[in-house]
Structure formats: structure tokens, C-alpha cells
Specification:
The chain is 42% helix and 15% strand. Helix 4 packs across helix 6 and helix 6 crosses helix 8. The structure holds 2-phosphoglycolic acid. 2-phosphoglycolic acid binds next to strand 8. Pathway: Carbohydrate degradation; glycolysis; D-glyceraldehyde 3-phosphate from glycerone phosphate: step 1/1; Carbohydrate biosynthesis; gluconeogenesis.
Length: 245
Amino acid sequence: MKTLIVANWKMNPQTAKEAKKLFDAVKKGAKNKNTDIVICPPFVYLPLLKGLPLGAQNIFWEEKGAFTGEICAAQLKDLKIKYVIIGHSERRKYFGETNEQINKKIKKALDRDINPIFCIGETLEENRAEKKSEVLERQITEGLHGVSKFEIQNSKLVIAYEPVWAIGTGQNCSVDETLKSMLLIRKIISNMYNRELADDMKMLYGGSVNSKNSAEYIKGGGVSGLLVGGASLDAQEFISIIKSI
Ligand code: PGA
């Protein structure tokens, strides 16, 4: 199975010119036949970037109509977008996204053959209070509520484990702790569906990934890939991550 490396550019860069420059540099340097690469830029740059698979950073669950500021599945499909990040902790934190809303977004994406990159992860407080298992279980069971085994098997739904305390802090989660979380997530998925589906599911780690720590996760973290934020904004650094795999 190929390793999946997803770049989450978040609300960067500031201009289309910079976005194209970054994208072209990555496209040129990021050749590794062992990896699949997906770039998730802000919506406004999606139509401008060609030559690598693209993902969106959000989706709305309604079909169309009067929802100012939202982007629907049909609009993403029209641009041939293959992936969408759903439930990122920044959306949960700053925009109050709930597990129920995330569930609706996942269902809509699956319905339209857009692969969700479903983000989960506990906060520092939850981690310290030893509530990680409880939090992950709730995020997964509520996020995938009503999603059938068949729908998951027919999609490339990816789960991204991103402990909130590791995002953008430089404090990446240890490989051991990541491995434990991956086993826990697979167990939750196995209980919800079955063992085979849990074993086959792609799972990413995200949170302060850089070219120095990337290979360790693939080697010993039980992950099928990485979700990279800050380090994906520097073409050389991102290329080094890809080459480290
Ligand atoms: P980071 O972000 O790599 O900058 O920690 C990861 C993410 O938020 O997806």
C-alpha cells in the first residue's frame, strides 16, 4: 500500500502567485513512487492548481442554495476534487463544529464520491485527564453514525489522528503514543464494523510533522501516512518529508 502524504495549507499562502509557486515546486520535486500526495489549499486556489491530486479543507452538507459563504459537494466535484478534510480541530475549536455536523459532512462527501479525511484527536486537557479513549470513541462513533460498512468499503475514507496539543506546537506525539492511538482507533472501527475493514482503513498521523520525524511514524507508528500543516508550506521541507518515506 502506498503511503499517503496530505498537505494542509490552512489559510495560506496570501496570494495566488505564491500558491502557484509553492505548488509547482512541490510538483517538480515530489517524485516518490511509494507515496500518494494530496494538496489541500484554500478554496480560492483550487481551480488554479493542476498536476497533483487536490483536496478541499471543508464542505457543506446541503446540496445547494442560500447558505452564504459555504461550498457544496457539487462545486468540489466540478473541479474534480478527490479529497476533503472534515472535522479538523481548528474547525471544531474556532467554528464550533460538532460531531453531528461533521457526520453530515462525511455523509455528503461519501454520497458524492469525495474521500473524507476525517480528523479526530484529543485536547491537552483531555489527554492529561486520561480521557483520550473516551474522546476518540465519541468522535468516531458520532462522526460515522449511520455510515454503512458498504459505504466505507467503497470509498477511500481516511482517518487522521491529530492530537490537538501537537498541532502547530512543535511538540509532536511520540511514535509509541501514536502507535497506541492507532491500535485504539482500529479497535473502535473494528467494534463498529469489523476487523477486516479496520485493518484496511488508511490512518494518518498529523501534528508537527517535519522531515526529521516523518520517517519514524511510517516505520513504527502504525500509520499509513501523514497530514502535514506548517511544514507543507515550505516546498523543500515538504519534498524532504516525501523523500524520507
Ligand atoms: P501542523 O498541522 O503540521 O502545522 O502541526 C497539522 C494539521 O493541522 O493538519
